[in-house]
Structure formats: structure tokens, C-alpha cells
Design goal:
This protein is 68% helix and 0% strand. It has 28 residues and is an all-alpha fold.
């Protein structure tokens, strides 16, 4: 098992995108 580096990168990017979206444009 295990998660490949690409999958981890995609999950991390999605998490960051979601966090920025929920935080709003006020956060730079």
C-alpha cells in the first residue's frame, strides 16, 4: 500500500486550495 508522491502532492494542493477558498480573499 501507500500513497505515491504525485497523489500526496495533489491532496496537499487540494487542501491548500480549500483552505484559501474558505479563508477568503482577505488572506494573502
Amino acid at each position: 500500500g501507500g500513497v505515491g508522491p504525485m497523489t500526496r502532492a495533489m491532496l496537499l494542493a487540494n487542501t491548500v486550495d480549500a483552505a484559501e477558498a474558505s479563508a477568503g480573499p482577505a488572506v494573502s
